[in-house]
Amino acid sequence: MLLGREAYTQLKGRGQVYVSTRKGATVLDEVVKEKKYCVIVERKAFKSHNYSRYVEQAATSYLIAREKMQRVRKLRLEVQGVAKEIELTEDLIHDVEGIVESASKTLASEKPPHTRPDPRKCSSCWYKRFCPLH
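^ thats the sequence. predicted structure below, dont judge the formating
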């Protein structure tokens, strides 16, 4: 986490944009103007075994930003300096809209979210002291 914070601090000022809409708020790592449209760039300092969560996070930023920035047409994900264009398919947008709706309902609810903990992971979990299952 400390290394990620250091990497984030080094990148700060390279075009970060704060966007807030009725759907939520996000900090875009960079917005690049290309020809007649804009590209949202999401940067990650470290690889993850679950690459799809990076794609979902980047797509969520796109959903929030497109309300304020109509000319956003592309999404670029950079992981450890390697860039990849993310295709904004209808399926991806639909999936992410579902995730955003589910998260919004969870945040608005008084009850904690339902979990299915893996007992093998509980011993090393940082949140077990807060977990209602322990």
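The beta strands are 17-21, 24-28, 30-34, 37-44, 72-79, 82-86.
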